[in-house]
Amino acid sequence: MTSSGAAGASGAPAAPAPRKSVTGTRTTVAVLFLLPALVLLGALVVYPIGYSLIRSLYDQSGDGFAGVDNYRALFTDDGIRTALKNNVVWVVFAPTVATALGLVFAVLTERIRWGTAFKLVVFMPMAISMLAAGIIFRLVYDQDPDKGVANAVVVGVHDTFAESSAFPKAHPGRDSPLEAAGGGAFVTREPVRAGEPVALPLVGVAPERMPDDARDAAAPRPEPDKVTGTTWQDFTRGKGVGRLGEVDAGEPGYAGMRIEAVKDGRVVATAKASADGTFTLPAAADGALLRLPADNFKEPYNGLDWLGPTLVTPAIIGSYVWMWAGFAMVLIAAGLAAVPRELMEAARVDGANEWQVFRRVTVPMLAPVLAVVVVTLMINVLKVFDLVFIIAPGSSQDDANVLALELYRKGFAADQPGVASAIAVLLLLLVIPVMWFNVRRLRREVRR
Amino acid sequence: MTAQAETVTGAAEQAASGSPGPARRSPASRLAERAGGGAVRVFLVLVGLFWLVPTIGLLLSSLRSPQDMAADGWWTVLTKPSQLTFASYAELLRNGDITGSLVNTVLITVPATLLVVVIGSLAGYAFAWMEFPGRDWWFLAVVGLLVVPVQVALIPIAELFGKVGLFGSVLGVVLFHVGFGLPFAVFLLRNFFAEIPRELLEAARLDGAGELRLFARVVLPLGGPAIASLGIFQFLWVWNDLLVALIFADSGSQPITVALQTQVRQFGNNIDVLAPGAFISMVIPLAVFFAFQRQFVSGVMAGAVK
């Protein structure tokens, strides 16, 4: 009791002195110090809990006792059921993904000089509002690949692997040597011959949709033992200016058009038109039909409908992970700093590779920290409101619904305070295990 | 730089293990390790860029005209920097709703932060160093309130504020934030104050300091780091809040988050307000964050349960 230092500080096994007042305070003074906090907590936090519990048992007007009707609505109301389902998805995926990323970042940055700078970048989104993050991600997820960076990347990657189709809406004009071959492809009416140039004219591509590298078409030149030809836009603005089926000055070649030579249903040769629309096929194509396959004419790929009904929840979870992975990273990095180096080094000396060290030493040592991070994020995720409210556009907000949003809608837009109170009680019930855990953990400390 | 970093860690390892370094590694495995280290660096740079791109997108979007925004993506700025303009910002600052809401954000955030710090310190000190019946039980009850979701209080407090005439006022929003900031404040400060060496308090007591003097002259100065963490945490929390203000503020007392939220419905058309508005609303939190990283991080760590 005399001078054993502050009680909370020492973890010494010797029975610590109770943290007695040094002033011999009268209870009235203590009450004065505590009063503001206890009054505010009572009025603003405790009273609402009791009020919500009771309010949830009354009908929407608040006059008639409704029993468990409001709680029944939790399982019958479509909006709430979607919200519950989405909350499960949120609680399962958002904390685990954020924690996993945080773990990877914390471990990888540990030995890197500029690790702090990296951590700062990843941690920064925690400082901004969910509203700002929501606006940021509305921009990211914009459907138009010319505006939203997510779809710009998706389309870019897609077009790198699956060649883009540059000529949607292109089709044969009058008296064309081409005819529709089904499935959107076009094929020549007559077999082609080596040494006899082929014309494959089409019409219907808007000038601004032409590939950037398309140049004026060149008339096909015959080559012995090869099938040569030109595919181009057989259209000149102005009535009667261009000649049908002939390459006129100023008519652009279909740069990049793919051409297949087909014999008896088998593709025997392929070619790709150059910038002026000309192409050359080997002698094998002699006597084949030339086909312009359908993938030349598909509508261009426009990316994913991020904020549509199916992807909206994963997309918003993505923005949440962007905000909170830094939180996980910082807590885990602090835990990592406390793990004794010797353990990892011993494992390495014993021949463990980095992955084994990570899997068998680092992760088990960090388990308590990981648990705290996951639980904290789970509580946080249960209450997620702003991101969904801002990012989900009106058309898919029903599909992105979560409990906190549904509570707001029911309580303040739909004027159903009874049902909203039942949602509030449900949210409270979901965090009670954590509340209990906190109190238990602290009771041990306080008692020392 | 790689070599240097390697030396540094190598030295640390030696110091830590007390052995003359890992002798078993073959040159080949060292080479593989170095290549792996390079891959890690590249990976981290890419992730860092990935994390920055959304924010850069907002910044560059806010610096383009609505016409340019409608035409193509913000990344075209990289090749055509001439599009950059402060016109949207200038326009925004002439918009009375937005400037008024920025003032409201300050009017809400500053008192809500100060009140939580003051009231929380008083209670934290009482829980740490005063004796009264049931002290630990009261404290545990406050800790229990740490995880109560704000959603639980929205409807009851809306009704309560309606009755006492606080609904729609700045004061109402402030009080709500104070109420829900207090459990964390009391929790954090009580634990910190409890670590103050008893001798310091006793010495002050022997000098004849009363309870208030002791609190103001000894406890508060010594509690500086915890108070700073709490203040920054609460400041950011309140500044960034949307939900509470959405319900308890009216059009005259709404903060910037609510003012911007009303524009989101017509997202594409209002981008010239939303992008610069969002960026302005981020400037203060980011400045606070960069200026007080350490305090912020320790606040986050202590608040891991909130």
UniProtKB/TrEMBL annotation, chain A:
UniProt region (Disordered), positions on chain: 1-20, 211-235
One GO term describing the cellular component: plasma membrane
Membrane association type: Multi-pass membrane protein
Membrane spanning stretches: 29-49, 88-108, 120-141, 321-340, 361-382, 419-439
InterPro entries named among the record's database cross-references: MetI-like, MetI-like_sf, UgpAE/MalFG_permease
N-terminal signal peptide: none
Low complexity bias (residue ranges): 1-18
Gene3D superfamilies: MetI-like
Keywords, ordered alphabetically: Cell membrane, Membrane, Transmembrane, Transmembrane helix, Transport
Keyword S-adenosyl-L-methionine attached: no
Domain ABC transmembrane type-1: 84-438
Family of the protein in this entry: Belongs to the binding-protein-dependent transport system permease family.
Official protein name in the record: Sugar ABC transporter permease
Taxonomy of the source species: Bacteria, Bacillati, Actinomycetota, Actinomycetes, Kitasatosporales
From TrEMBL, chain B:
Pfam families associated with the record: BPD_transp_1
Keyword Transmembrane appears in the UniProt entry: yes
Positions of the ABC transmembrane type-1 domain: 102-292
InterPro entries associated with the record: MetI-like, MetI-like_sf
Entry keyword Transport: yes
Localization per record: Cell membrane
Residues passing through the membrane, by range: 39-60, 102-125, 137-158, 170-193, 214-239, 273-292
Superkingdom of the organism of origin: Bacteria
Membrane disposition: Multi-pass membrane protein
PANTHER family reported in the protein's UniProt record: ABC TRANSPORTER PERMEASE PROTEIN MG189-RELATED-RELATED, OSMOPROTECTIVE COMPOUNDS UPTAKE PERMEASE PROTEIN GGTD
Family: Belongs to the binding-protein-dependent transport system permease family.
Protein name: Carbohydrate ABC transporter permease
